[in-house]
Amino acid sequence: MQLVEIKNTNISIDNKNVLEAVNFNLQKGEMKFLIGKTGSGKTTFINSIFGNLVPSKSQVFKVLNYDINNLNNKEIPLLRRKIGFVFQDFKLLNDRNVFENLKFVLKATGWKESAKIESKIN
Known about the structure:
By secondary structure, this protein is an alpha+beta fold. It is 28% helix and 25% strand. The chain has four helices and four strands. Strands 2-1-3-4 form a four-stranded antiparallel sheet, covered by helices on one side. The longest helix is centred in the last third of the chain and has 11 residues. It is globular, with a radius of gyration of 16 Å.
């Protein structure tokens, strides 16, 4: 199953191309790492996957079957709830352990049943 499909995509900020002719695929079960120098476009790339940036040019840009080229504002929160992302600095709440941090996020994104929350975390 294809999770992310990007073909011939340019991403711009303030009318300046940051990334040009991007081609990227992510299949279910794959793990990829994004590395590069400061200012090379890593954050811009991630922001485009989250729907924060609309490509300035793109043949195909799909994330979990959402067409980023035609994403409306109502769809952005729905897309983000389906994406797992580990921030470089983790963004953990210091007053909680890992389990409690994950529990907090699941509850904040609409999970209600304690047994399902615990099962998901484990």
